[in-house]
């Protein structure tokens, strides 16, 4: 009887093999599988292989179904499963246990390394629980949270390959690390006060400030208005009391950063609500595992120092994301909101080592809060915002990198070397593109060194050796030179085509699109500087169907920093020298001798490269309206012009743009032999006429946005009719302008178009490397196979 019963039971058992792909390493995935298997009475094993996580499972049909469902529906918070493949196995019954198989070195190459993740709920509770053995330990973490990308040297992701290598686990931590049912099973940075990293407080000369509680002392210094340099997760922050105008001013002066907005950190959502207006989606983003900086509408009654973001109605805000931040806010007398800005000497990348910080920040910080967990690669805070229908990542770094972007095309292993400013690099291979963290402006040697480090780090983590490279057309970008010097077969990609392709990749668009790229500047194929472009683009080529008409840029790049030069250029374009003699009041504050130099340059066409840049058009309008004549950070004039325009918008401000601009469209759109131009001089002339009729500056600022939106959407309508294309891509740095994005999208959607823009990949130059990777990779494939471009 017994024997027969066993046979019947045995006959009920089935076995299957599951292969799970995605981000499933270092996120507590194998212990999760183990716990599911134990709960459902399943035997077998789980391990990592080059294919991903491989499970061999034996159990009843019901149990296996439940197991398979649990794997996808209950996966740990940080796991990102891209696929689960099932295949039957001959039943293996010899073993009734379930085992976790150790990973071998070569095994995990294709499984991706997770990003750095904010302190989780469980660890937060333990951190503040006096009974817990990690009470107030600033480096508490578990498989659901803590540092990853920033401490990994190479793969497989294992403590010995991270900067935690120098901290041997104590007996208690080791027991957790080895227990499959513990939240810290194989948590590589696992540590406690007995065995892990520690903090210390230092004077600017490096000497230790003796202290029984370094964090409390740091909080007291902040309360006194001092500047603290604090080593964090991906680099140093400079911190001051965000309610103190004096403290903020001290920081600004010492950092030589007069106006650029400073991000702030608060301990919790409750505090955030006192300082900014936060909707549901923004709340979810603030609390998400990535904990990025979110750009939020500032509440005037919040009491933040007025000089945090002068001239701007938004504030960049994030919640405390490491246990060290939480403890700082827990300390008595700590200000409830702290400026947390990048700890870098002007222009250079953020400091990561204690020594670099002492050298680079000695003239800025009054004291230093150090720790001894080395940062292998620097990662800035990410910056995100929620526009009407889209989440936009403005700076993609901590929390998002190195998450891959899946693409539907089979790419050769290729490196996209990126743009010159806001640079990132990207590596494409097979069906994914991995974009690096924000690297910065490649204008100095130190940032370029960071660029090289990032390329090497990314290649190591991906075990990828690029066979080809793609870069910008601009010959002087350091990224272009890097690409040339790599000696790899090279594809040079036009800047705005790359902007379009990045959006196409993100949304997996294979068919041609009409792309509206409103940008700062990018090298054109005709030797002029482009930046207000309407392209018919596919993944391998493009045609320039329209653009903003060009304006001279007096002094070339210098015009980027001095918008008043663009204002004079626009006036000159409208009415020549006569017009320069009848200046709007706002421009008369520019010294006469400086104006006359520019007038000479314009009349004689000396050093006045022409540009169709949308950013420069914004600059011209901002200067003409007296918003800003000289900038101290990129995009300042445009951002302030947008803020001014926003001050007179309603929630439905964009509804009547088509009617309101219709009478002017015929004259704004000029048919040329090759394509259509949107007349920037005429657009500005309309604004100046309104100015002289006494219309308010804010209304004119808004009118400018409306005219631009009206002209572009009317042009797209025409082009859509002639080409039959309905898919519209919106990208370029100017798409960070909320009014432009909202208005354009509304106008296009109401005429039946499908609109796509960058959400997980920046629409600014941070997305260029991704576009280059896609175009370069597909061009290479189509040339080598003599097949056409996909689509
Ligand atoms: Zn945790
Ligand atoms: Zn320990
Ligand atoms: Fe660009």
Quaternary status:
single chain
Radius of gyration: 28 Å
* Distance separating the two termini: 66 Å
Secondary-structure content class: alpha/beta
Number of helices: 24
Main sheet attributes: strand count, strand direction, barrel closure:
10 strands, mixed
Bin the helical content. 25-40%
Beta-strand proportion: 15-25%
Largest sheet, order of strands side by side? 6-13-7-8-12-9-11-10-14-15
Total beta strands: 28
Provide the low-confidence segments as ranges.
1-8
Q: What gross morphology would you assign?
A: globular
Q: pLDDT average, as an integer?
A: 94
Listed once per kind, the bound small molecules are:
zinc ion, fe (iii) ion
Provide structural commentary.
The protein has 791 residues and is an alpha/beta fold. It is globular and about 90 Å long. A ten-stranded mixed beta sheet has the order 6-13-7-8-12-9-11-10-14-15, with helices on both faces. A seven-stranded mixed beta sheet has the order 25-26-22-21-20-27-28, sandwiched between helices. The protein contains 24 helices and 28 strands. Fe (iii) ion is lined by residues 495, 499, 519-520, 522, 732-733, 765. One zinc ion is lined by residues 120, 122-123, 141-142, 144-145.
Topology:
Blueprint: H1 2-12, E1 13-23, H2 29-39, E2 43-49, E3 52-60, H3 61-73, E4 80-89, E5 98-100, H4 121-127, H5 171-178, E6 199-202, H6 214-223, E7 228-231, E8 236-241, H7 245-255, E9 264-266, H8 269-275, H9 280-287, E10 293-297, E11 314-319, H10 323-330, E12 338-342, H11 354-361, E13 367-371, E14 383-386, E15 391-395, E16 405-416, E17 426-435, H12 445-462, E18 468-472, H13 478-485, E19 490-493, H14 495-506, E20 513-523, E21 529-537, E22 542-548, E23 551-552, H15 558-561, H16 563-580, H17 592-604, E24 610-611, H18 614-624, H19 636-646, H20 657-668, E25 669-671, E26 676-678, H21 680-692, H22 697-723, E27 727-731, H23 738-750, E28 754-757, H24 768-785
Parallel strand pairs: 2-5, 7-13, 9-11, 10-14, 16-18, 18-19, 20-27, 22-26, 27-28
Antiparallel strand pairs: 1-3, 1-4, 2-3, 6-13, 7-8, 8-12, 9-12, 10-11, 14-15, 16-17, 20-21, 21-22, 23-24, 25-26
Helix pairs in contact: 6-10, 14-24, 16-17, 16-18, 16-21, 18-19, 19-22, 20-22, 21-22, 22-23
Bound molecules: zinc ion (2 copies) and fe (iii) ion.
One zinc ion binds at residues 169-170, 172-173, 191-192, 194-195.
